[in-house]
Amino acid sequence: MKKKISLIGAGQIGGTLAHLINLKEIADVVLFDVVEGTAKGKALDISQSNSVDGSNTEIIGTSKYEDIKNSDVVIITAGVPRKPGMTRDDLLGTNLKIIKQVAEGIKKNSPNAFVICITNPLDVMVMALQIYSGLPSNKVVGMAGVLDTSRFRYFLSKELKVPVKNIESIVLGGHGDTMVPMPNHTKVNGKLLREVIQKEKLDKIIDRTRKGGAEIIKFLEKGSAFYAPAAAGVEMAESYIKNLKKTLPCAAYLNGEYGYKGIYAGVPVVVGKNGIEKIIEIELDNVEKNNFDVSIKAVKELFDAAKKIDKDLEK
Ligand code: APR
C-alpha cells in the first residue's frame, strides 16, 4: 500500500517538501494550509510535473484536517518565518498558537503518525506539539540537527576542498545560536577534523554554521531558508517510512540521556519504523558538555517563556 505524508503548511518549506517527496516517490502527499488556494495551487503545479519526471505519486491540496486522516508521517512547517534582524525566538507567541491548532488536528486525525516539526523556535515548538497532541514522545521529533550538520559539512567541504560526502559530522543541542557543532566527532576522509584544519578557520566555520539561517535571511530579505530545511525533513521522513534506521541528529525527548529529563534537545537518534528507536549517547569532552548545557539552558528559558504565554503547557 502507498504511504501517505501530510504537510501542514504549504509555504516555502512545505511546497519544497512536497516537490522532493514527489520526485523521490516516497509517498502520496497531502498539502495542507489555512490558505486553501496556496495548498491547492502548489499541489496542482507539482502534479503537472509528474508526466515530465515520471513520478507516480498523488498530491492534493486542502485546508480540511479530515484529509490528513491516517497519515504515516506529518511534517509541520505552519507558522511565520523570520525576517531580517529577528531571532527564531521572536516567533514564539505567534507560532505557539498555530502549533496548538495543528496539534489538535493531528491528534484527531492521525494519532499514529510519525510527526516531524520544523516550525521555529524549533525546540520549544516540538516540545509544545508533543504536550498539546499527547502523542508518544518517540513519535514526535524536531528537525534541526540534520540541517545544522548539513550546513557545517558544506562549509567544511568548501574550506578543505573535500567532497561533502567524505565528511562525517554531527551538530547537537538546540536549533539556535547556542547549537553545538562537534569537531571531535567530525572526520574528513577518515581523519579527525582537528588534524586537517587550523583552529581559527574552524572557529569561523562553527560561527558561520550557528548563524547559517540568518545569513540566508539577509540575502532573501523576505522569508528564510527552505531548500536545505526541506531536504533535511525528507531524510528523516524517509528513514521512518522505509525503516532505514539511519542515525540522525534530531530534536528528541530526553528521559535521562545526557543527564536531562523532560526536555527536547538535539541528539543523535536512530529513526526507523517505530519512530525514534534509540537515543545514542556519544561521549562529550568538558567543552562540548559545557556548550551542550548552555544550549539546553537556552531552550529551557524559552520554554518557560512559552509556559507564561499558555498555561496548558504546564504539565
Ligand atoms: N495552519 C496551517 N498552516 C498555517 C497556519 C495554520 N494555523 N498558519 C500559517 N500557516 C501557513 C501559512 O499560510 C504559510 O503558507 O504556514 C505557511 C508558512 O510558510 P512560509 O511563510 O513560506 O514559511 P516557511 O519558510 O515555509 O517556514 C515555515 O519553518 O523553518 C521554519 O522559521 C520557519 O517557522 C517557520 C516555518
Secondary-structure blueprint:
Elements: E1 4-8, H1 12-24, E2 28-32, H2 36-47, H3 50-53, E3 59-62, E4 73-76, H4 92-109, E5 114-117, H5 122-133, E6 140-142, H6 145-160, E7 167-168, E8 171-172, E9 180-181, E10 187-188, E11 191-192, H7 193-196, H8 199-210, H9 212-220, H10 227-241, E12 246-255, E13 261-272, E14 275-279, H11 286-309
Parallel strand pairs: 1-2, 1-4, 2-3, 4-5, 5-6
Antiparallel strand pairs: 7-10, 8-9, 10-11, 12-13, 13-14
The site of adenosine-5-diphosphoribose has 29 residues, from helix 1 and helix 4.
SS-based class: alpha/beta
Distance between the termini: 38 Å
Unreliable parts: none
Total number of strands: 14
Outline type = globular
Strand residue content: 15-25%
Name the CATH architecture of the largest domain. Answer: Alpha-Beta Complex
Q: Any idea of the CATH topology of the largest domain?
A: L-2-Hydroxyisocaproate Dehydrogenase, Chain A, domain 2
The CATH superfamily of the largest domain is Lactate dehydrogenase/glycoside hydrolase, family 4, C-terminal
What would you note in describing this structure?
This protein is α/β, with parallel strands linked by helices and 315 residues long. It folds into 2 domains: 139 residues, NAD(P)-binding Rossmann-like Domain (Rossmann fold), CATH 3.40.50.720; 171 residues, Lactate dehydrogenase/glycoside hydrolase, family 4, C-terminal (L-2-Hydroxyisocaproate Dehydrogenase, Chain A, domain 2). The chain is 44% helix and 20% strand. It contains 11 helices and 14 strands. A 6-stranded parallel sheet has the order 3-2-1-4-5-6, with helices on both faces. Helix 4 packs parallel to helix 5. The chain is globular, with a radius of gyration of 19 Å. The chain starts with a strand and ends in a 6-residue tail after the last helix. The relative contact order is 0.14. The mean pLDDT is 96. Bound molecules: adenosine-5-diphosphoribose. Adenosine-5-diphosphoribose binds next to helix 1 and helix 4.
